[in-house]
Amino acid sequence: MPSLLSPSRKAVSKHRDLLGRSFTDESEELVYEETAELFHHFAHPERQTTDDTLIGEVIDEEEEAKIKKLPWWKRPSPYWLLCVLPFTAVAMTALLAPRVEIYTILVCRQIKPDIYYEKSSLAGTALLSSSASTPTRSQLCAADPVVQAGVSKFATMMTTSMGILSCLSTGWWSAFSDRYGRCRVMGISVIGLLLTDLNFIFIVSLTERFPGAYWILLLGPILEGCLGGFTSAAAAIHAYQADVVDEHRRSRFFSLVLGLLFVGMAVGPTLGSLVIRSTGRLISIFYVSTGIHFLYALFVWFILPESLSLSYRLRAREKYAQRLRTDVSEDTASLGIRTLNAVKKLFGFLAPLNVFFPEVKEMNNNPLKKKRNWNLTLVGLAYFMVTSLMGIYTYAFQYAASTFGWTSETLGYWLSLVSGTKAFFLAAILPLAIKLFKPKPKVVEMPSETVPLLSSSDQKTLKKKEIHSLAFDLNLARISLLIEIVGFMCMGFALTPIAFTASGMFWSMGAAFTPANQAVALALFTERGGTETGRLFGALSVLQSLGSQILGPSLFAFIYMKTVATYPRTIFFVAVGAVVVSATLLAFVRLPNEHDHSHATLVAEESDISSGSSAHSHAMLVAEESDISSGSSAHSHAMLVAEESDISSGSSAHSHAMLVAEESDISSGSSAHSHAMLVAEESDISSGSSARTILNHTDGPA
């Protein structure tokens, strides 16, 4: 006779049938809504859907056990990427200034040949060489307003083409990483980098014979954008870290990643300048960068262990197949519906932005009087305005080269000073200021998440939860904006190279805005009941991509082209205006009082269960464990969606995963109604009798 707590074959079969139906019913959740949940899917793959099953968990546990037995060089670890990310940052930033100078020479040769060939006695190639004659020719080209306008137009097309394609393709590559692994996406994105580098070197060499061929350089960003670009690569790297790092250690590792990236950004420009000085050729640094990207590609494709388990990838592929079958069935719909679906998919990358829509609340419980909460909307718009300032870099380089006669070598030193100041400020000065001036967080106690389901009330432990001051983070963001306003104004008024450099270093200390603003956004999102924080960060990523890769470069390029002949420093005052708009938006943010903020944070973290009664199943307990206090056994979490389960006080635990399609009757003197996630079903809880778990048939109460 089978044990009462052992599932029968009929129950297992029925469970598998329901499992199959659950995959079918939720087939679109992973991929169809992939854009809205992009960051959440990457950072928290184990919580992508509430239909994770016991079978899948068992398989994952078995694979994890096998992985732990592997030698260290075959196990996924966050330290793999920590070792190589600084080198990728070096390769990226080392090319910033030389690329602008090469653009200037290419455009000058095409539209102003009289300037480029003015000194015909100068032998050699000005583009590939950095001899004594080269700075003179480069400076002549950089000083011409027509050439500068042409460079701005060309650089904008290079940046925006990759930015638009990256935005459109990131959603697809995010789902692809779920199906085939994070390493695959990182490897494909670095192939795009290699193609861009090789195309650049080849076309630059070709323009010696065919000056107008530089437009073929656009092929590189187009290919890189189609292969995911920087956005998909950064998301995959973040996802890899989240896959292999425990939740309580993620902040530490993410901080390490950010710090190492800033180190690479500080070293890269100086390294590029030294390479150009030692070789005497501008193009030489591109060979070095291509070599670094090639080594990184070999590392990703052949050394870096995959972080996602095979079972997880197979389940994602099954969901994708279900989605494809659904799309085929939609082909029979009317033309209008098919057109609407096509438009929806085309602009699907904007779906995460609905997080910032104002929240509508009833006033005094009166449905006729409603009030909109614009706080999160204002914070998102402020973030968007600031991220658009990243598009000023190329044109700031052009301005410095034109105004001060700087070469790419000098620009590299300037960029290293600015990036180094930013890294030092974020790593040393800002943490010290926070430690000295930030109010101490309030400490509250709540039931620990690690308490077993079957533990009684006397076994429960309490954990401490810190509630941080939201006002401090908001004020830090506002002060950072003030620093950026002063920095940009000083850069615009600077008349000497030293003043321009000092202004840039001061401006870089406004970098605290991004982490502070994100902290405010997260707190406001939690305060209004938001729980899927991944959606919020996904929306912030979309804003950053739109601002830094599309709007920012286009705006500053247009302004620089129109003003380069009359007042080229206008771009800095436009940047001041953008920061002022951002500060104005933050000025209208009204924070909730400390009591409401603390309460909302606790709701998002834990669900409290009252002692001596059955639990109220909250919406947040879909895939979490809920503690039941004082003489009652654990509830069936996650899988009791459409069934009845009767549990008695003082009994042993029921089989929570296999009771999906069965009823469990338990003697009772009282009953309770489990709310929210039991979907109109009742769970009878009795006291003073033993539990009977009936898996094969349904009887009346004993």
UniProtKB/TrEMBL annotation:
The keyword Cell division does not apply. It comes from the Eukaryota. It is a multi-pass membrane protein. InterPro entries: MFS, MFS_trans_sf. Pfam families: MFS_1 (PF07690). It is found in: Membrane. Keywords: Membrane, Transmembrane, Transmembrane helix. GO terms for cellular component: membrane. One of its GO terms (molecular function) is transmembrane transporter activity. Coiled coil: none annotated. Residues 681-702 are annotated as: Disordered. Its main location: membrane. PANTHER family: FI18259P1-RELATED (PTHR23507:SF1), ZGC:174356 (PTHR23507). This is Major facilitator superfamily (MFS) profile domain-containing protein. It comes from Agaricus bisporus var. burnettii.
